[in-house]
Amino acid sequence: LRWQRRREEEPGGEACAPARLTCGASPARRGRLGSSGGGGMGLLSDPYRRRALARLLLRLHAPLCLACLAGGLGWFLGLAFQPCTLRASMSENAMGSTMVEERFAHPDRALAHARDFAAHKRKARGMPVAWLEKTMWNLGLEVYKQSFSRTLPFPDELRERYMVTGTNVYGILRAPRAASTESLVLSVPCSEGQQNNQAVGLMLALASYFRGQIYWAKDIIFLVNEHDLIGMEAWLEAYHDVNVTEVQSSGMLGRAGAIQAAISLELSSDVITSFDVAVEGLNGQLPNLDLVNLFYAFCQKNGLLCTIQGKLQRSDWDSLPSYLHSLQTLLLMVLKQGSGRPQGDHGLFLRYHIEAITVRGINSFRQYKYDMGTVGKTLEGMFRKLNNLLERLHQSYFFYLLPSLSRFVSIGIYMPAFGFLILILVLKALDLWMKLSQCDVDPADQSCDGGPVAVEVRGGGD
Length: 462
Description:
This protein has about 450 residues and is an alpha/beta fold. The chain is built from 14 helices and 13 strands.
């Protein structure tokens, strides 16, 4: 009876159906009744609630952005605090222990090869290709060379040249216990001047020592590349039979198995005080964390000081200087990843899904000195552990940050910091979209460009 009496009193009379009780109601009441039955969609379909939400976001836009900025920066600064990091550990069972007996004891042979290489390098005024081929052949390796040339889009910084030509020399040690299906790489860049002479000498001494061992299950490639990154890219493209950078190459005459891992060695002194590891590759790519942990484990075993970003790890983690030290190391890694430049020849291996790092011997003012024998034992232990791999490194992390070599920050911990910073862009985009939508509905709004001008024009027309 109440509904019948109300239908007779409201304008429209019989035109109002029972399902349309709001035909004679006010616009605000119709909006409330229409949105109450829509559930969550009422907030988007109701123009009144949408405008209220827009006004709320426009009013709180600046405070929300500041809160997200503070949250993102605060989260990122907390990553360098040790309780927020994870302890580095080996995930690959085949490399879970350093219980191998390193027997490399030929540092004098490494220094002799380094002196001969330096002498022939000065005589040839460049890379002594013929001497390297002869020496590797005498060591019992399969020796090959690869000529390449690259036209640069801009002249280089040193000689202002557009055409770069060079030769890569590499020797292959075939595995005596397996077919040539898998391989490892030890590479040394042939730099100008007196740099890396000791690295070439140590590589040749290791090749001679490895030749006499019978436990190798993977081929080992000893590579000396010219012109650093250009020569390395030319060798990798020829090895995998691709042409990405349009390098003109003579082709690859000898190949080993699929490359599982690679280590790039850089030494410029007969003795070193520490080992520095570079992990940042092309476009910020990183190697599997197990390879970094393997390097750290053998440095600890042989008593070598190891650093990352040139920073030695501190033991007093609960002090302010230690926190600032870890934060600086973390920021340096983030900046180098953001630059996109590879921090060594290893960075080009990563784009071919080959795990690789660059190891640099540093001779600084520290009192502890290590000879070629200790460095050779460290590399021998790493290669013997990589020789045990049954598959590619995949069990550990590929996305991480390193405040030190013994601690790391996984992607699940540092991504919320970047999420807060990205949320600022989302809020700014919503703010601009709502302002544009408001200008389309009400061009005379003071927040729209040209709003007051449009009002003056309409007033003058009257």
